[in-house]
UniProtKB/TrEMBL annotation:
A Pfam match: Peptidase_M17
The protein, known as: Leucyl aminopeptidase family protein
Keywords associated with the record: Aminopeptidase, Hydrolase, Manganese, Protease
Species for this entry: Candidatus Methylopumilus universalis
Residue stretches spanning the membrane: none
Molecular functions per Gene Ontology: aminopeptidase activity
Family: Belongs to the peptidase M17 family.
Classification via PANTHER family: DIPEPTIDASE B, ISOFORM A (PTHR11963:SF48), LEUCINE AMINOPEPTIDASE-RELATED (PTHR11963)
Amino acid sequence: MGIQIVQKRGVATEKNIKGSHLLCVLSEATSKTFPFIKELDRKLKRAHKKMASLSKEPVTIEIQDGRLLSFVVLDQKMNTFQRHTLIRKALKPLVAENPETLNIALFGDEDLKEINARAAVYVALMNSQRLPSYKKESAKKNIKSIEVFGIELKDKFAHEIAIVSGNTLTRELTMLPPNDLTPSIYRTKIKSLAKANGWKLEEFDMAKLKKMGAGAFVAVGQGSEPQDAAIVHLTYKPKQIKKNIAVIGKGICFDTGGHNLKPARYMHGMHEDMNGSAVSLGILLSATLLKLPIKIDCWLAIAQNHIGPKAYKQNDVVKSLNGTSIEIIHTDAEGRMVLADTLTLASRLKPDMMIDFATLTGSMATALGDRYSGVISNRSELSCLAVGAGSESGERIAAFPFDEDYEEDLESGIADIKQCTLEGGADHIHAARFLNRFIENNVPWLHTDLSSSNRKGGLGAALSEVNGFGVGFGIQVLKKVLQK
């Protein structure tokens, strides 16, 4: 990662803080003995505020010697999302100046200091990474060191470093423009990642998928030239294995909508339709760095949804890998098509659990906005586990129903199932019912619809609009599954 974290057990004072940028994390019970209290008091007095207001809105001040200081109060009752959000707001003016050293001073009892230290370092690391930019000016330099006062953790923030590493990979890939992340380029990048991290790599290209009978995936991939779409299978296999989990990601590098062409307003940003695959890769990287005792099979459905002579069209009937015939209703519902055959492949290895990530439906965004993402599962206990993991990770999750009568809307007069409906409605639930038809061996499955993958102004810990949502949540899911 290239950022050094220096822990200093001693309490921060005005004399031992050497850097010019300080985040001061206080608790409600903190006595007025922390550094620069006089400057903070003057600022609060001028604004007619009290110290308690810092638990709702941080305060940043520049003092006479040129140092920039941010103060925030974080109490025990706050959830992870609230904690991350307040720290993000407090850090924003500090990281905007790109200091070489960022100081974080912690106050409060030992348990609260650890909670706040982990949150503060996580948010600081998250927002000091170099992300893709094509501007003329020179690229932003990363913060070189973070100095943490008031606590010393034995694990040296290993968990936070691993999650940020995975999250950064997710954001980097998602932010690349579509001419710099075609399926061919993406597959080359994945090969490099596999080699660097010791992952086993297997590719199912279009020729192989046609021969296998993966007609749902091929229907989408055949519309692009070159036909470089593929299902990529990566495997992380540690020495000790307690669980076997499959992680699946939708990787549509650009989505025009196909024959049902999107208008410009809705096509803009469709290079981010591969975000689910990037989240899956981020989880795989974080799990590898954490050395989780889980065998992870990561399946990436990489393609583009283009328009052309070979592109699939409305009323086509195609046959999937598991033999289910599908009537095409709308070519812009391509995500569930590429995922269908990918889920079949993943389920045939009989993992203990499957979890997929996809920017799949507009109806999930309509239901939740861009602050939450939604999950749907064929096991109610997995939905509950996911909501808990979302709360613990600071990446909030809402669960939706999976009742079988929703599938009545997908009945086709000519095929086994319709791909979707034209009426819209509960399309996020329809999509889950559709995908469930392609899972074999009754594998427990959690479907994640990433409605919060991009939010203007940032979300939770992330200042960037593309926020990498799903990596922290996914790792927390894996940890909770390990505990079962």
